[in-house]
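Teaching assistant's notes for section 4

Start the section by putting this record on the projector. Ask students to predict, before seeing the second block, whether Glutaredoxin-dependent peroxiredoxin will look compact or extended. Collect guesses on the board.
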Amino acid sequence: MLRTAINKSRLSAVRVIWGQGRRFQAFSSAAKELDLDGSISLQKARSWDEGVQSKFSTTPLKEIFKDKKVVIFGLPGAFTGVCTKAHVPSYVNNADKLKAKGVDKIICVSVNDPYVMNGWAEKLDAKDELEFYGDFDGSFHKSLDLTVDLGFALMGERSTRWSAFVEDGKIKVLNVENTPADFKVSDAETLLKKI
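Reveal the predicted structure now:
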């Protein structure tokens, strides 16, 4: 009984801290379009051996977004609670509806390495519906002002929770949550209504 009370107390403290960590960050991105000709790239989810074989190649943003309609969503981290139980499943379950609206790709991105993203995608059995990318150094998220310091949770600087509809590199819709624990506006259902 004492252990249960202590665990509930810790959970409450984590929720308060999680919210506070987010409150001090600027979360609305001023970016209206992605820099398709710049040096920022993402790393397609893959195994370590595939990474070695590709000489650790990255994927330029132009290759991902040029002349395409893309739904992309970012989240704090692979294998974390809301990300695993709600955020990714939201897009897996609505993939057909998004593609029926003309979406060419549905992408999940996080400030993780591509090997962790690959393991997570395989565990979620979501690689048929979604493409997974790592943003190993956070440069993509920093360019959009979509990072948050989650050092208190031993995660460092990470992606905030967000979703977007991008057409030929132009950001048409951007939904950003108030805290990393929130899941109110970055879900697939909300994005479907705005496309």
